[in-house]
Amino acid sequence: MTSSPATVQAAGTEGRTSLRQFTRVLGAVILLFVIWRVTTVGLSEGYPASFWISQALNGLVLGGVYALVALGYTLVYGILFMINFAHGEVMMIGGITGYFALQFAQARGWMEGPWAVVVVALLLIMFIGMAASVLIGVTLERLAYRPLRQAPRLVPLISAIGASLFLQYSVLLIFGVSPHSYRKPALISGGLRLGDVFIPYTGAIIFVTSILLMLALYFIIQRTKLGRAMRAVAEDRSTASLMGVDVNAVIVVTFMLGSALAGAAGVMLGFHNTVVKFNSGFLPGLKAFTAAVLGGIGNIPGAMFGALLLGLIEAIGPSALGIPTEYKDVIAFSLLVLILIFRPTGLFGEVLSEKKA
Amino acid sequence: MLKLDSVHTYYGHIHALKGVSLTVNEGEIVTLIGSNGAGKTTTLNTISGVLSARAGAVYLQDTTRKAGEQHGNGRDGDIRLDQLPAHEVARLGVSQSPEGRKIFARLSVQENLAMGAFARTDADGVRLDLERVFELFPRLKERLSQPGGTLSGGEQQMLAIGRALMSRPRILLLDEPSMGLAPILVQQIFQIIREINAQGITILLVEQNAQAALQVADRGYVLETGNIVLSGAAGDLLANPQVAEAYLGI
């Protein structure tokens, strides 16, 4: 955590200057507190190195999932300058749908079949979850956001929160309160033991899949005609339309891509947490949002990096600060507050300021 | 080829174009001059479909129909542009290089040019046109992988025009191509406008630099607070004392 509030702009007035001094002092206090906790409590517990490594690996797995969801926030923000607060629910729908696909596969005994069958079935389950999320994401855009395109920026935000609640309670109504539990097929139940460090297969698969999906997205954005059009629309919608780009179509595709990643995250989180229910998307959604802000919202590599960092902080933080693991959410959201105070544009925030100029 | 028939355009409640009518014939350079806020950019944006006309019509001659007449005049064989969204107007061969250049700052020069050819599927033709653009603006070739935002003002203007040409337009709408450029560059830009026209592209040129614009143009229109107040051959407008006093700074 840096204590130099470089983001507080042009300290012209007296008020600005004192605010800057205040944040500087606040930053120093927080930094000292963190250092004090880590040195006196965290390190004095005498955890072995393998413990920290395990925690870090857990953090990377969770971070990978956050990254997939965070990319959806950042993609949509990059193009529409709105936070799609229903994005966590888009992910949850993917998870719920994936659950039913898994049930279907299990009922047919595919999950006990030869490994090739299991792998194909798992991929299929993920695709079905992704497809469901895409459907929901595109519907949201059409019904909840597009009619408000010309409205003040607060309006679609409120619409997004409404959509989020609508989706949560629709799922509650249809599928009930009780969690649906994902049963891992035997093939991916075990894990790898490297000395004292245990790596569950699901964790490794989730991390690798997340990275592959991120690379695929990055390729689409940087190397394809569609991606070029997306970047052009993000920079200047009306000039892009002068080039013959159908801006509405590009916006729909953006929602599709973000939702597909969220759907994949939903299914993988289902396997990771072993359960999904109506509010499964809420907390990961907020975490992913935090990650997107941490990396600088609108910035794609920023979202990836911010999510992995958040996953790590969340996994290591409780032990390092010597607080119970149940409070890991406190760490994540304190981090959100701190970024918003000290560096509202995120770690890679210069892109955002350039865009506003 | 292009005809505006008493077009009215509004910004909210502000009546920006109050019945603008003008015609651009195939192969011409037509200039639209006028002071700040007269509605020049609004006119181009209404043609392009970025703004929509509340009344009146914009016609583009439909070449696919091989209509017998030269001018788009609202009869059979014309397309009503005012009823189309901007991206469809662009795909019909109406290309705009917008005011302030509007380069995609974070896209490379090459990507900016590729955006110009976005709607095209003929890869060979695109490659050919890219060569043509490099012939007009050799400077762009040296800057291909650089982000558009890092170019100088003059280079950005070249990129904006080059990008507009990459769609292989039937008609090119140029909005203030000389704005903010050093006098030597201004001369160069007008020279290039002539060259582009000589290659068979019809041009509608919006300019504050009325003198230079009228010198390259075949015909001109003078726009004042949303109304066409004068029109005629460019030479006649140059000689017109009213125009001279108001726009040529003589």
Q: Which chains have the largest interface?
A: A-B, 19 and 25 residues
SS-derived structural category of chain B: alpha/beta
User: How many strand elements of chain B?
Assistant: 10
Mean pLDDT of chain A: 88
- Broad shape of chain A: globular
Total domain modules of chain B: 2
Structure summarized in a few sentences:
Chain A has 357 residues and is mainly alpha-helical. Chain A has helices at residues 14-42, 49-80, 87-107, 115-145, 154-175, 201-223, 225-235, 237-242, 247-273, 282-295, 300-321, 328-342, 350-356, and strands at 180-181, 191-194, 197-200, 275-276. Chain A folds into two domains: 1-31; 59-356, ABC transporter involved in vitamin B12 uptake, BtuC (Orthogonal Bundle), CATH 1.10.3470.
Could you characterize the architecture of this molecule?
The complex is a heterodimer of chains A (357) and B (250). By secondary structure, chain A is mainly alpha-helical. Chain A is built from 13 helices and four strands. Chain A has helices at residues 14-42, 49-80, 87-107, 115-145, 154-175, 201-223, 225-235, 237-242, 247-273, 282-295, 300-321, 328-342, 350-356, and strands at residues 180-181, 191-194, 197-200, 275-276. Chain A has a two-stranded antiparallel sheet. In chain A, strands 2-3 form a two-stranded antiparallel sheet. The longest helix of chain A has 32 residues, at 49-80. Chain A is globular, with a radius of gyration of 21 Å. The relative contact order of chain A is 0.18. Chain B has helices at 40-48, 86-91, 109-116, 123-136, 138-142, 153-165, 183-198, 210-216, 234-239, 241-247; strands at 2-11, 14-24, 29-33, 55-61, 78-80, 94-97, 171-175, 202-207, 219-224, 227-233. Chain B folds into two domains: 2-93 and 169-247, Rossmann fold (3-Layer(aba) Sandwich); 102-168, no CATH class. Chain B starts with a strand and ends with a helix. The chains are: A mainly alpha (357), B alpha/beta (250). The interface between A and B is medium-sized, with 19 and 25 residues.
